[in-house]
Design brief:
The chain is of the alpha+beta class. The chain is built from 4 helices and 9 strands; from the N terminus they run E-E-E-E-H-E-E-E-H-H-H-E-E.
């Protein structure tokens, strides 16, 4: 029997972006207020439809730039670089009221970034602490400006992205993606504290990260940008897997 594409129901593919950064010592996510239907006026994650001539990674990088003005790693501009990785696929038949839509979500991590600029079908865009957007256990997600869940299934996608970030910095060097190219151990510690939502002992943390092979490389320089005495500057080492891992404290 010859292949007949019309025998299969059509569906679309989108990319949704969980963009995380640390601002004001808090883990924040990027949220856009939708300018079009469906869910016009509601907050959502940035994203959009995949074009017929692009792959998923290219679509994610394009949507990131179009809706926020931010760029992924390939930009080469260290002030706007962002770590980009695929998170998960979401395909509930009822997740989009327009038609059957499968979304491939991506996780984006970047250092402290300036206020982004809206574009595409986004009416406005802002950084928001993740605890104002992610639903607490057994409850609804809460937006600090407009109560209620994010549009579509974006509350679930955001929660999955936050948990991915929290777990990955235990066993990988991904926490350095939240830092500038050169950073202090104190700045790295504040990343862990913001992502995990806990306070860490400075001395124990310093001993662990500087004693983990390949995690940090001293630059030979120092800085006083955090106040107090000069602190040594480091860059990310070549290790991608931390051994021993940085275990998350139990709370």
């Amino acid at each position: 029997m010859p292949y007949d594409p019309s025998a299969f129901p059509p569906f679309a593919v989108t990319v949704d972006l969980v963009v995380l950064t640390v601002r004001g010592h808090a883990l924040c996510a990027l949220a856009v207020r939708r300018g079009e239907q469906p869910y016009q006026g509601r907050w959502a994650l940035p994203g959009g439809f995949v074009k017929a001539d692009e792959d998923l990674a290219s679509a994610a990088a394009r949507e990131l730039n179009e809706e926020t003005g931010l760029r992924a790693h390939e930009s080469g501009d260290s002030t706007t670089e962002a770590h980009l990785e695929q998170l998960a696929t979401y395909g509930d038949p009822q997740r989009d009221p327009r038609m059957r839509v499968v979304s491939v979500a991506h996780l984006v991590l970047a250092p402290d970034l300036p206020s982004p600029t809206p574009g595409g079908d986004a009416h406005s865009v802002r950084w928001a602490p993740v605890d104002t957007l992610v639903a607490p256990a057994g409850g609804e997600a809460v937006d600090e400006e407009q109560p209620g869940a994010l549009a579509f299934d974006h509350s679930r996608i955001l929660a999955d992205g936050v948990e991915r970030a929290r777990s990955k910095i235990e066993y990988s060097s991904l926490a350095t993606a939240f830092c500038p190219q050169e950073f202090t151990v104190g700045e790295l510690r504040r990343v862990y504290e913001a992502v995990w939502g806990v306070a860490l002992d400075p001395r124990n943390f310093h001993r662990k990260v500087t004693g983990t092979p390949g995690f940090l490389v001293p630059t030979g320089g120092s800085t006083t940008r955090q106040g107090g005495r000069p602190a040594k500057l480091f860059t990310a080492g070549g290790a991608t897997v931390l051994n021993p891992p940085m275990l998350r404290p139990e709370v």
